Each structure stands twice: as structure tokens, then as C-alpha cells.
């Protein structure tokens, strides 16, 4: 049983602060790996931290579980940490929480993708200019920032 499920058993639907990580895996052509989740929304690979993990550990574990891709911590580049009122989430079951998300970028290591885990319906690469309609709000924001940053690097 996951840490969050154990906590939920004790606190019910009390609003929690939950740390986690997400990873922008990008190809040299600027495509981004996205995961279609069980709720039908697309999002970046990532998830919530387990006790004893660092943000990097969480990113590596979640990417492996959800995509089959093995990353090394030293391949991750911290992009930013996001928290606050804008990161309030209500889980599909109604559980409320504020996400504290460490966002990493990583050059895609060109490994074969797995079928993912029980949370993953599909894995697919998308150009930043053609992201899916049903993309998690926070992940759309993250990718918008990333696209702006990438455009600045390519111009400069």
C-alpha cells in the first residue's frame, strides 16, 4: 500500500501537502513523451514521493514504472519547483491536496517504451506545437514554460 493511501486511511479527506516529481522527456526534435492516464487525461510521467525518497529518486522511479525507461539521477536537470494555491488538486476520488512538484527535464535516452503500469493507458511523443486537448492543466503550463525557454535558446 502506498504512503498516500496509508495517510488517507488516517486523515480521511483532510487537505494534504504532497510532494512529487514530473519529468519532461524530450527528443532532439523537440517532441515530448506524454502518458495517457486512467482518467483519460494526458500528462508528463511522474508521481508522488514515497518516504525516504528524494525528488530525483521519485522522478527516476515514476518514469521507470510508467514508461519502462531507465534514467539516472545525473541525467535529470531541475527545471523548477512549483507549489502554492495554483497547485490545488482534487483527485478523481475527491481527495484534496496541494501538490509540491519538482519538474525535471531530461534528454530522451531513446530506450524502448513499455506498456507502462496500471496508471498508463498509452505512451506517445507529441510535438510541443501539437499537444493533446485533454492535457493536465499544470502540465500544459509546465510545457508552455519549457517551450518558451526552448525557443529562447534556439534564437539566442
From TrEMBL:
UniProt KW Hydrolase keyword: yes
CDD domains hit by this protein: NUDIX_Hydrolase
Domain Nudix hydrolase stretches: 16-149
UniProt KW keywords: Hydrolase
Known cofactor(s): Mg(2+)
GO MF annotation terms: hydrolase activity
Family, as annotated: Belongs to the Nudix hydrolase family.
Protein name: NUDIX domain-containing protein
Amino acid at each position: 500500500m502506498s504512503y498516500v493511501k496509508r495517510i488517507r486511511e488516517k486523515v480521511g479527506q483532510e487537505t494534504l501537502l504532497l510532494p512529487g516529481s514530473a519529468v519532461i522527456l524530450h527528443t532532439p526534435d523537440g517532441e515530448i513523451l506524454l502518458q495517457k492516464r486512467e482518467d483519460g487525461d494526458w500528462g508528463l510521467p511522474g508521481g508522488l514521493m514515497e518516504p525516504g525518497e528524494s525528488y530525483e529518486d521519485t522522478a527516476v522511479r515514476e518514469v521507470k514504472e510508467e514508461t519502462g525507461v531507465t534514467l539516472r539521477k545525473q541525467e535529470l536537470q531541475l527545471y523548477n519547483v512549483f507549489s502554492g494555491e495554483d497547485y490545488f488538486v482534487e483527485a478523481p476520488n475527491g481527495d484534496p491536496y496541494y501538490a509540491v512538484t519538482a519538474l525535471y527535464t531530461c534528454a530522451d535516452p531513446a530506450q524502448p517504451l513499455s506498456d507502462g503500469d496500471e496508471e498508463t493507458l498509452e505512451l506517445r511523443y507529441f510535438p510541443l506545437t501539437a499537444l493533446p486537448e485533454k492535457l493536465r492543466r499544470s502540465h500544459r503550463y509546465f510545457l508552455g514554460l519549457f517551450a518558451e525557454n526552448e525557443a529562447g535558446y534556439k534564437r539566442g
